Here is the input.
Amino acid sequence: MNDSVILPEGLTKAEFTKAIEAFRAVVGVDNVIVDLDRLVPYTKIMIPEDERLHQPSAVIIPLTVDHVQKVVGLANQYKTPLWPISTGRNFGYGSAAPATAGQIVIDLRRMNRIIEVDAEMCTALVEPGVTYEQLRNYIEERNLPLWLSFPSSGPIAGPVGNTLDRGIGYNRYGEHMAHFCGLEVVLPNGDLVRTAMGGVKGGAAWQAYRWGYGPWVDGLFSQSNLGIVTKMGLWLMRKPPASMTFTAVWNHIEGAAKGVEALRNLRLNNVLENSLLGHVLYGVACEVPRTALYNGAGAIPDEVIAEIARKAGAPIWNAIATLYGTQEQIAVNFKIVKEAFEPTGAILLTEDQVGPNRFFRHWQGAMTGRPDLVEFGLYNYRGGGGSVWFSPLAPARAEDFKKQVGLVKTTLAEFGFDYLAGFLVGGRHMEHVCEIAFDRTDGEEMQRAYRCYDKLLKVNAEAGYAVYRTNTAFMNKVADIYGPAQKKFNQTLKRALDPNGVIAPGKSGIFA
Ligand SMILES: Cc1cc2nc3c(=O)[nH]c(=O)nc-3n(C[C@H](O)[C@H](O)[C@H](O)COP(=O)(O)OP(=O)(O)OC[C@H]3O[C@@H](n4cnc5c(N)ncnc54)[C@H](O)[C@@H]3O)c2cc1C
Here is the structure.
């Protein structure tokens, strides 16, 4: 074992070596990694912190639920913390690396069985290693009339990890936490529990009904460290007879702010089932490196952005949504959409009117079951491999929209970063998803990105906003924003269920 291995906190090298031998006896020698070279994919992060603060001591790759239970049992015996990942693509939130150095990553990618897809009920039951691409191929090969909802990092990520981190997709079922149904979980003491109807022998309605009987505990396993999820039920969208993607565009923030209210009302009235509202620079950044746009100091000024937009033939603000149903339903709903957008001063464009626009096609694909990797172009914008998502949550109101844009854009500019952002507008809330792209190879710039994120948290908290999800560098600070009572409650649960603190210490700022 190499000397620069970072050991789990409190363990001697001899104890760690013994633990590794015990894990190897369960999952096989090759499925426990301690070589630094082979740990690289689990150590590489994009967030603005030193990799060594998140370097795992080892990686265990189980194949079965029985393996996971035995590994958890040994973790209690040897006091080795385990950081579970499903497909490990949590880019911009910490990737596959743990919250604190020395934890052992338990990588569930070999547990990748699609156990069932029921086309009639529109449900699936999958293991954690299943990727969206794998599930989509399964559905297509069988010509099943089902569409997946996936994040923009789509094909290579997976539904279990994404959902557990409260990820977001873009079709009717885009709020993933609201559309999983039934979990199988290995608890910190090694017990195996199936939630909701899964507790009933035979579990006939496990993927049909979310609530079961007694306290609904499923939420306890999301963004938490109270168990390792080994199976998840999913609700899938039935492929509609037709769909129609359209865009509404504005060049001024006042119009876009009215657009937020229109989108919210259309969602509250069940006319729209998904919607996003993006700023022009986000789309441009997916396609063009920053050096080709601007070489001045600091963030790109608004007048330059206006010129970039003019040259690209793009508006500054751009809402996209998709209607689903029969042609008749779509025609009726599109009429309602037009009436709703009319007072906002939007120009409304249908697919034919937009023409061959790569970014429009990307979002249309996201809303109609076709994932792609278009947004990975973001990483060429600044270069240097730095990326962190800042995602505050706000009520879907015009005033909050303007306040959010102002707060975030001004703070980013204070640290020299561009505003690359969009809003996912729900029925009552909106997620303001902002990418801070920075050069990780430049120490000063990385520190600046860290300070920028920190200040963004602060100014948002002062205005009553907080992020709904964060990266492994900021989990404590975000937990503090949510207040001492929630922190104490979470710790009480943690101590009761995981007294040895073996599952993901530090996740969401929760320690035993
Ligand atoms: C270009 C780009 C666009 C993106 N767009 C989106 C987007 O639209 N929506 C979105 O939500 N995200 C987005 N992301 C962020 C991220 O890539 C996705 O959320 C991705 O789905 C997360 O990775 P994963 O699915 O591999 O989950 P993992 O990395 O496997 O898991 C995420 C976290 O969940 C927990 N976890 C995972 N598995 C288990 C388990 N079995 N038991 C207990 N806890 C577990 C762990 O804490 C883990 O760190 C984007 C990233 C990029 C680079």
Q: What stands out?
A: The longest strand covers residues 429-439. DSSP finds 16 helices and 20 strands in the chain. The domain at 242-467 is CATH 3.40.462.10 (Vanillyl-alcohol Oxidase; Chain A, domain 3).
